[in-house]
Amino acid sequence: MEPSDQVDYISGRTRLFAIVGHPIAQVRSPEMITAELRARGHDAILVPLHILPEDFDACLPQLMRVRNLGGLVFTIPYKLRACALADELGAQARVVGAINALANGDDGRWRGDIFDGLGCVEAFRRRGLAFAGKRVMLLGAGGAGSAIAAAIGSERPASLRIFDIDGERARLLAETVARANPRVVVAAASPTIRDVDILVNASPVGMLDDARLPLPISDLSRELVVFDAIVKPERTPLITLAEQFGCTTVYGREMMRGQIARMVDFFYAV
Amino acid sequence: MEPSDQVDYISGRTRLFAIVGHPIAQVRSPEMITAELRARGHDAILVPLHILPEDFDACLPQLMRVRNLGGLVFTIPYKLRACALADELGAQARVVGAINALANGDDGRWRGDIFDGLGCVEAFRRRGLAFAGKRVMLLGAGGAGSAIAAAIGSERPASLRIFDIDGERARLLAETVARANPRVVVAAASPTIRDVDILVNASPVGMLDDARLPLPISDLSRELVVFDAIVKPERTPLITLAEQFGCTTVYGREMMRGQIARMVDFFYAV
To answer: Could you report the predicted ipTM of this complex, rounded to two decimals?
Structure first.
């Protein structure tokens, strides 16, 4: 057999993972999670599965019977619906009410959890930064914001203030996170950097060609840590401003890497 | 993003193919068919799916609803059961009554056919050898033998004699191939090289550590062409003997390569 007759990254023994979404072409998990799996020495791959909304409920339970399937990742529009597929929900998922990963345990049970927020915490940890004892201002209480609020809440910050243009959504998220973390002061609030140690943007403001800032600020203390969950562009208007003032900044891409690391931990831990 | 953060062989745009079997670890299609897909410039991959017999009937129709799934390959024990999944059967499949590939057409219809025998014909073609007008002796009328008989039959050989240790099985296969190819002389027969131009072994005799020959022979004409469908070992006792006598020999691995080429043609033609 000539070497060109075969590739070295897939065989009959390769463990499968898949990301399920609609649409699917834009997802980055296949190349990134597969790289993480390989870097850890696993003979495994993560493939894209484009499943239509009308097929999801019938297809997923059958797909989960494939014996060499180790886990699933869920993206838009399935993070809520996927909860119903889990035999058990992790701590983050119970707060957020959504999952983005399902892991097939050795016992045959499927465990679901959500890793967006844990990825943010992991990104900070890798930088030697902690949320514990800090006063955090979170902008955005949608899907990403909810997961980030849940994850930060469980890190015991001094306080977590949450702003959303939909005030009711911010209030409901604050209540949920407060209930899960009774010792943390959590409240809906106006967007501000006054008495804030860490500013987190989980709103879409600043994405792609959006030149706006997610809150009205013009100058910043260099003590402030600024994180923006947006991946494109890497340097959002908020990050650019923060760097002009000498703030420590954490990028959306770092959250993505942190999330991937925590997801792969999850896939091989259960 | 550092280069090591991602692999270059899978993304959200990659078209999926899969081989379905039980067990699955031993299959070679993932590394070999993926290599063929890549060599032709397709952004595509073939992954292994281990599906249990009790799950097959419910799982496959759902799996076939995955929008970026281009086709399926079937191995033991599913080549017969998979026929029911096809909207249309190809010429080979109609003779053999089994399929090993299903292709998802642009029109949403699934077309099934079997490529073991076509792989044998393709291997001969690549060597500049033809079955047309030749007298062929085929040993073995099981799964591989049936597919090979169907493929050779449609190449207009002068005659096709078929031997199997189960004489009834040989007779039934001869009848089926004769019906599909009225102008070819097809018959069950004793194993012989007398008046034979091409000897084809599709029986398991000579596989792995089996030192036997699939028919009682001690000397051969160097005009005889000898093909052995066995892949392991590459040089079976029959091939070794044939080479000692200066015969032209064709290897099982060549059939495998020929089959892969024809399957990929099929996946991208429909």
So the answer is: 0.91
